[in-house]
Amino acid sequence: PARIPVIAIDGPTASGKGTIAMRVAQALGWSVLDSGALYRLTALAVLEQGVDPADESAVAEVAGRLDVSFHNGDVFLRGRDVTQAIREERVGNLASRIAAYGAVREALLGRQRAFRVAPGLVADGRDMGTVVFPDAPLKIFLVADVEARAKRRCKQLKEKGFSANLSGLLEDMRLRDERDRSRANAPLVAAPDAKIVDSSNLSIDETVAVVLGHWSSLVS
Ligand code: CDP
Ligand code: CDP
């Protein structure tokens, strides 16, 4: 039987994956998976429960036990709205550290695949096309210059009421990208069959149009 279609959108931090995934899902009437939120939720739970982030199996246990739910783009941990809390940079940085653990990735695998429901799924992260949904009919690897990404993130954080500093963000982003690319488990890399989309000089609308264009040419 034909499998439920998935559009995988992977790429470095602040390349626009979440925004583009949401918009593409809306256009197609599909569901969306923000896989990074699961790593961020695990990081937040680790911080709140005082678990040692250096203890891989303890962190994996937290990941396996996560009590999360998603409603209209809001994220809940044990019923508490943590949509804002998981966006903090300290949570993102810890997420990137614990995402290097194989046992943590394993613990979150089934949870991610459960999002694949009809009529389709748009999933964003680092390994959607390489590990989680290797049979996705469309894989997008979304990139943008680190300077463009730092500016976007800075603006986005300020709009959400967080303080943000461009040079600090740029530094953190370079470190995070390097860690995501060089780790042994599911490193950030384009799948061999991924379409590379550079959004450095594209608006959100233009980027959405590029992705939808790839999808239409695939199904027509
Ligand atoms: O929004 P941003 O791109 O900064 O991060 P995110 O997508 O929310 O993911 C937070 C961290 O989780 C990333 O730095 C990755 O290390 C990790 N992650 C991952 O390893 N695999 C995924 N599929 C998604 C996120
Ligand atoms: O999910 P990811 O970390 O890859 O990025 P995001 O949170 O979707 O996007 C980061 C910020 O860049 C958001 O505020 C977007 O509105 C903005 N953005 C943009 O200005 N131009 C684009 N072509 C894509 C995203």
UniProtKB/TrEMBL annotation:
GO molecular function terms noted in the UniProt entry: ATP binding; dCMP kinase activity
GO cellular component: cytosol
Similarity field: Belongs to the cytidylate kinase family. Type 1 subfamily.
PANTHER family per UniProt: CYTIDYLATE KINASE, CYTIDYLATE KINASE/PANTOATE-BETA-ALANINE LIGASE
Residue span(s) of domain Cytidylate kinase: 7-212
Native species: Parapusillimonas granuli
InterPro entries linked to this entry: Cytidylate_kin, Cytidylate_kinase_dom, P-loop_NTPase
Catalytic activity reported: dCMP + ATP = dCDP + ADP; CMP + ATP = CDP + ADP
Documented EC number(s): 2.7.4.25
Entries under Pfam families matching the protein: Cytidylate_kin
Leading EC class: transferase
Gene Ontology biological process terms, A to Z: nucleobase-containing small molecule interconversion; pyrimidine nucleotide metabolic process
Name used for this protein in its record: Cytidylate kinase
Lineage: Bacteria, Pseudomonadati, Pseudomonadota, Betaproteobacteria, Burkholderiales
Protein localization: Cytoplasm
Keywords attached to this entry: ATP-binding, Cytoplasm, Kinase, Nucleotide-binding, Transferase
Binding site for ATP: G11, P12, T13, A14, S15, G16, K17, G18, T19
